[in-house]
Amino acid sequence: MPELPEVETIRRGLEQKVRGEKIKRVIIRNERSVKTPPSSEFVQKIQGKVLCQIHRRGKYLILGLDSGESLVLHLGMTGRLIYSKTREEIGYSRVVFLLENNAQLSFADVRGFGGLWFVPDEKFEEAVPALANMGPEPLGRSFTLEKFKQLLKGKKGKIKSLLMDQTFIAGIGNIYAQEALFLSGIHPTRSPSLLLDQEIERLYHNLLNVLKEAVSYRGSSVNTYVDLDGIEGNYEPRLRVYRRAGSNCLRCRQVIERMEVGGRGTYFCPRCQK
Ligand SMILES: [Zn+2]
After folding, report:
1. Radius of gyration of the chain (CA)
2. What's the EC number here (predicted)?
3. Of the residues 24, 240, 264, 271, which is catalytic?
4. Distance from the CA of 210 to the center of ligand 1, in angstroms?
């Protein structure tokens, strides 16, 4: 699933390519991808509007329209947003936005867990429940070490599952939670409330650094993720633990192992991560 760095890469691409462009026509190929309102109304509301600022909140994209309305988009597990200068058929496309400059923006989604919401005002938090309950942005200014410490206080369960919980922190998923824990020497199943101060500090800095680094490399294409131009991200070769079971730890040469945490495949070094 695209996580913060991948969605941020797409957001930056949209800012460059479609900001200021008018949506001439909307073609819906699969109504299930339109969450609200009903698809005929969705089309009617969006056609003729100009795309303005593009924001990201967690793994969601929020495309502002010149009318003050917004279009919210989530890529789900396999969603792709592809920009092309000509009208071409994109595989598994579900919703296509034809722009006035003859370019098109296609929302393609093989497995169909992604979706689009038209929000008639700026109250997208009310319209999309996941946004209302979302935790802080890890790269936001208000996400300080103190804030992170406060959030962790009294939290039960496993640290890896907590990092992936969107109501705890926004935008982190299976890849970057594992990378940050590896870099911090913390075992994925540790109890959040029992982490030592110095471990919390390490985790905080590694989390931010790994997300920033991945953004600078335009994300990881471990599954189906590609950017707006259909090009894969460059961060995958730099992943330090994710999907490296059987390979040697880059730090201590111990063999990396795999286990399930909260039903998700999780990679860790049994020597470095305690
Ligand atoms: Zn190791």
Report:
1. 20
2. 3.2.2.23, 4.2.99.18
3. 264
4. 18
pLDDT per residue, tens digit, the chain (274 aa), is 899 999 999 999 999 999 999 999 999 999 999 999 999 999 999 999 999 999 999 999 999 999 999 999 999 999 999 999 998 899 999 999 999 999 999 999 999 999 999 999 878 888 899 999 999 999 999 999 999 999 999 999 999 999 999 999 999 999 999 999 999 999 999 999 999 999 999 999 999 999 999 999 999 998 789 999 999 999 999 999 999 999 999 999 999 999 999 999 999 999 999 9
122 assigned to active site: no
25 a catalytic residue: no
Q: According to the 3-state scheme, what is the secondary structure of 197-259?
A: HHHHHHHHHHHHHHHHHHHHCCCCCCCCCCCCCCCCCCCHHHCCCCCCCCCECCCCCCECEEE
Does the active-site annotation cover 2? yes
Residue 196 contacts by C-beta under 8 Å, 6 or more apart in sequence?
none
Q: Which amino acid is at 22?
A: K
> Ligand 1 centroid vs 251 CA: distance in angstroms?
5
The verdict on whether residue 49 carries a ligand-binding annotation is no
Domains and CATH numbers, the chain: 4-132 (3.20.190.10), 145-268 (1.10.8.50)
The pTM for the full model equals: 0.97
Give me the catalytic one of 3, 6, 8, 179: 3
